Amino acid sequence: MTNAQTPRHIVWDWNGTLLDDNDAVVAAVNAVCTAFDRDHIDLDEWRSMFSRPLLQCYERLLRRSLSAEDWARIDVLYHEAYRNLLHTCGLATGVPDVLRDWVAAGRSQSLLSMWFHDELVPLVTELGLHELFDRIDGLRDDVGGGSKAEHLVRHLEAQQLDARDVVLIGDVLDDAHAAEQAGTRCVLLTTGVMSRSALERSGFPVVDSIPEALAVLDDDLAA
Q: What's the pLDDT band for 85 if we cut at 50, 70, 90?
């Protein structure tokens, strides 16, 4: 890999990547299950069926077709339950130290999340991470569940970044698909809501922690 192709900018995912929120996610999914008379699930079961678009994912979970009204109800149920538990979520192993080390080495990073922008920025600020990112972008639509690809393209354009200099670090296949469409590298973590076997189908490196992900990039930079 030539220096021009070696990633020196990281676009970080948030939920399941920098933020360890699996317990809150599963609890919120189970709030939806309760409302739709479905038995509760655990993290392994959610990992086995998680995919985007989320509407189809929830149709598999709830074993029924969902109307627009159903989807709007699910969106409210999930996010209310998740917000109630957000204060219990911590940062992933290695954060914020690895983020500070990346910046100290003269490299740059930004944050791109499908969590709501108006809630994301205050949370990142409260956790003391805001100053470590060149840019923070969250979801600005009313209802989530779509693909990250178009958001990543706009995120890179806003920073005038060459996709060949960028690696996206995330925890789901949607991150891999977004990276493919935008032309960036990608490293996937097993710390979120998808199984290792599913992530490995992407063809991108799959690791178990953020320090391991940074080690993959350090190997590239040393090559």
A: very high
Q: d(Cα 87, Cα 157) in Å, to the nearest integer?
A: 33
| Helices and strands (H, E) in the chain, number of each type | 10, 8
Other C-beta atoms lying within 10 Å of the C-beta of residue 52: 18
pTM of the prediction?
0.91
Tokens of 65: 């077709």
- In a 13 Å sphere around the CA of 99, the CA atoms on its Cβ side amount to 24
Q: Is the CA virtual torsion 183, 189, 191, 195 positive or negative?
A: positive
* Token couple for 211: 């320090």
Token code pair at residue 110: 């930004």
pLDDT at 2: 36
- Cα separations in angstroms, 73 against 31, 55, 81, 132: 11, 12, 12, 36
Distance CA(186)–CA(201), nearest Å, equals 13
β-pairing, 108-116 vs 9-12, is parallel
Degrees (nearest 5) of the Cα angle 40, 45, 47? 130
Instruction: Give long-range contacts, CB 8 A cutoff, 24+ apart: 206-212.
Output: 209/92, 209/93, 209/94, 210/17, 210/18, 210/92, 210/93, 210/94, 210/95, 210/98, 210/169, 211/93, 211/94, 211/98
